[in-house]
């Protein structure tokens, strides 16, 4: 009997995932003053099916913190620091070794609306048989000096939707960093939502994607443009979609050969009216010719409100891979090839029209 129990125990242990001690260290720095923050509360969350609190601590006199936890090889963590009413987060994902560094920079609140501008707004239209998925990417630049976060009363970044939508997903993060899934909340304005995300100094990226029902092969859409944008682009599949809209200029580009990419002439707030005529057979034929390696993986699902997610792509749309790469190239082009753009806001106008938050 004891022998059987020993064998069973060994078998269970042999199939159990290996657990090792993981050390997560970092510093909390005030990006406005450049000084470390002492006695600052720091929370460590495990990203599982739900966000699970694991540890909490306070920084020392030099702003340093340290966690030691037992973790599986693929365990994912999130370090959170609440400061001045803003929750700052930093992913802590062990890649190799037993130590992860997760420094966090926080900021004082107080950036002015005229110091925040919408540098770029890119829209993807992804047609399916019974719906059209709309993906909007916002690149927001905070040029405040000294560097301060933009976080007006009533929430963080605001965005507008073209009426009732399905499967609304929003994520946000620093430019070039990891995006975190956000929980949008309705505002007093119809079809306007807000996320609890402070626009920090430098560039931030907000991604909004949703589904609109499709009946037949013709689709008309009026996209609200609540903010002025220095540059605005629209992309649709190259095959199977006919696009009718005013003030569009097609770009000659090779980075995303599966898509037609247009420059939108409308840079001021307003509405973008579009009409799509679909050829379902051509769309299906184009998808069938896509190489298997180009098939993107769906975003990880989970029950937590804040979740590490990739760019919002769907598992059936191969051309979005090229579009995403094109957006990244556009972002680099904006950052390094253009002279500083005057703020696309007017500090004296109403907030919903003067700043992207």
Helix and strand composition category: mainly beta
User: Hey, roughly how much beta strand do the residues contain?
Assistant: 35-45%
CATH fold naming of the largest domain: Immunoglobulin-like
The proportion of residues forming helix, as a percent range, comes to 10-25%
Number of helices: 4
| Strand line-up of the largest beta sheet | 20-21-18-9-10-16-12-13-23
Ends distance:
68 Å
Helix and strand element order:
HEEEEEEEEEEEEEEEEEEEEEEHEHH
CATH class of the largest domain: Mainly Beta
The average pLDDT is 77
Could you characterize the architecture of this molecule?
This protein is mainly beta and 357 residues long. The N and C termini lie far apart (68 Å). The chain has four helices and 23 strands. The protein is 13% helix and 43% strand. It has helices at residues 2-15, 280-288, 319-337, 351-354, and strands at residues 20-30, 41-47, 51-58, 64-71, 77-83, 86-92, 99-101, 104-106, 116-127, 131-142, 157-160, 166-174, 179-182, 185-186, 192-195, 202-213, 218-225, 229-237, 241-244, 248-250, 259-264, 270-278, 308-309. The strands form five sheets. A nine-stranded mixed β-sheet has the order 20-21-18-9-10-16-12-13-23, with helices on one face. Strands 1, 4, 7 and 8 form a four-stranded mixed β-sheet that branches. The chain has a four-stranded antiparallel β-sheet with strand order 3-2-5-6, with no helix packed on it. The protein folds into two domains: 17-106, Carboxypeptidase-like, regulatory domain (Immunoglobulin-like); 113-290 and 304-354, Immunoglobulin-like (Sandwich).
